[in-house]
Amino acid sequence: MKLEPLGDVAVVATLGSDIDSGTFASVLSFAGAVTAARAKGITDVVPAYASVTVFYDSAQIPDSPTGAYESVCRLLESCSLRAKISPSVPMTKALEIPVCYGGDFGPDIELVAEHCRLGLDDVVSLHSEADYLVHAIGFTPGFPYLGGLPEPLRTPRRDTPRARVAAGSVGIGNSQTGVYPVPSPGGWHLIGRTPMALFRPRENPASLLKPGDRVRFRPITPSEFESWK
Amino acid sequence: MEIKVIHAGMMTTVQDLGRRGLLAQGVPIGGAVDPVALRLANLLVGNAEDLPALEITLTAPELEFSRDGWIAVCGARFEGVPAWRPFRVLEGDCLKFGTRQQGCRAYLAISGGFDVEQVMGGRGTFLPGGFGGFEGRALRDGDVIRSVPSERVLSGHWRIDERVLPRYSQEPTVNVIPGAQAAEFGDALYTEKFGVTARSNRMGIRLEGPAIARTSGDELVSTAVAPGTVQIPPDGNPIVLMADAQTLGGYPRIGHVASADIPLIAQLAPGDFVRFKRTTVGEAHAMARAEEHRLALLRQGLAEKIRSP
Q1: Which of A43, A125, A224, B102, by CA, is between 20 and 30 Å from A151?
Q2: A8 to B259: CB separation less than 8 angstroms, yes or no
Q3: B148 part of contact set with chain A, CB < 8 Å
Q4: Is the minimum CB–CB distance between B127 and chain A shorter than 8 Å?
Q5: Is the pLDDT reported for residue A173 higher than 80?
Q6: CB contact at 8 A, B97 and B80
Q7: B6 near A CB under 8 A
């Protein structure tokens, strides 16, 4: 584990250099141990891929001669010793996300099919038959970065990002797939849209998904999309 | 009271000191881009320092007040509007701002605070997500926003000691703590000066200058970033992330602006310049403590001037 500062607001713990399941399993268990410590002055614990970033309020960290940063580092070292070592991410029940593929909802599905030398139906079946793992939530509120995209579907980002991507859009960016929960700019190829709200500001937690969760996509028709509640 | 928005200005939003504990859900801290100016504006009208106030960007709104009250405007300075002191508005008054003289963002606090709903533990507007503040959006001409009634009495004519104010400048030198990829860049960030572009917003201040070349390093796996993080995208022009920045980033992090200097960056307007110098985490914490000490002295001084019935 390597510790380094993110300015005067956080400590970044790096647990590996790549996106692999072993590293991600230790990221999850370490983030869990830091959260469970409920230490004074720790405001946010943010797991993502190979790192866990721990935000602190320097005024709230118990005083020490070496300063707040060193105190937080020592806390993280002790959490690291306590974190359970698990070689793989625990299996949990997958959230099923309904997606209406293609048409106006997935304006880039033909580009993806062409790039991957696949038929439209193959894109839909490959995308909806795979199991995905949430590696991080970020970019916009509730946006899940999903690992597990079948290799034949890999498509680079668009040359020019869209200025506005509609909420619910499902996209592919290189080896990842994800869902845009709120309208935002976006550079991924859009293949469909879900009527399911992945981010609900008035509920707790607001994000439907968290790192370590599993996801599957289920194809639905445009009329099922319209009647989905 | 009710405050009628006659003209909204370029971008006027309700902001507070942001949301904590939600970064792992992708929700940025948000809140005032210049938190110190918002805190001071609130303190000057006798409010708790984290109450929602208006963040006014570059061009100011025109506001009509339905009752008597106290307001204070801090941060960017506008002609014809008293800065850094409370002033009285009377029923029916229309507050017009003159030309902007310095800075980018002004904070208008009203005694009692603006009355907006709390969403996810904050009252600030998060524009990209369309929630918080006034209907999740910037104010528009014709909106009517309410403030919480307050019977507070402010006494005498006085102004705050200039020494507690942030040292705003149109060409500040800002302290930076080197970031994870600092070694992959030369010294350019600390030797050149950078111009502020018009593409800057609440998510980030986009700078331009001599392109900063990355001399080594691989594609990075995304990690958490925060307001203050200085990223270098492939075009070599630094971006200083601000309140509404996305919570994860994959660009190299050359450094991070010391928290105490965030107000200096927050007040940079297009056409201004900025220089950077290196500091350490320990020194940055000491700067933050010194700033909190100045604010505590001010709070003490104000307690004698403001009475609540």
Answers
A1: A224
A2: yes
A3: no
A4: no
A5: yes
A6: yes
A7: no
Same domain, A218 and A134: yes
Q: Is A88 contained in some domain?
A: no
In chain B, what percentage of residues exceed pLDDT 70?
A: 99
Is A76 found in the same domain as A14? Answer: yes
Cβ contact B246–A44 (<8 Å):
no
> Which residue in B236, B263, B238 sits closest to B167, CA to CA?
B263
Of A49, A142, A183, the CB nearest to B222: A49
- Single-letter amino acid code for the residue at B79: E
Q: Is B263 helix (H, G, I), strand (E, B) or coil?
A: helix
Residue B169: Cβ within 10 Å count? 16
Residue A64 reports pLDDT greater than 90: no
CB B128 within 8 A of CB A182: yes
Q: Report the pLDDT averaged over residues B20-25.
A: 96
Domains and CATH numbers, chain B: 2-160 (no CATH), 173-278 (2.40.100.10)
Q: Which residues of B touch A44 (CB under 8 A)?
A: 20-24
Residues A26 and A109 in one domain: no
Whether residues A143 and A39 share a domain: the answer is no
Chain B nearest-CA distance from A203, in A, is 8
3-state helix, strand, coil in chain A (%, to 5): 30, 30, 40
**Do the Cβ atoms of B31 and B52 come closer than 8 Å?**
no
Among the partner-chain residues B119, B132, B246, the one whose CB lies closest to the CB of A140 is B246
**Same domain (yes/no): A103, A74:** no
Hey, are the CB atoms on A49 and B223 less than 8 Å from each other? Answer: yes
**What domain range includes position A48?**
2-82
**Residue A16 corresponds to which tokens in the numbers above?**
């590996």
**Interface contact A196, partner B, CB < 8 A:** no
pTM of the model: 0.93
Write the CATH number for A39.
Answer: 3.30.1360.40
Mapped onto helix, strand or coil, the DSSP state of residue A25 is helix
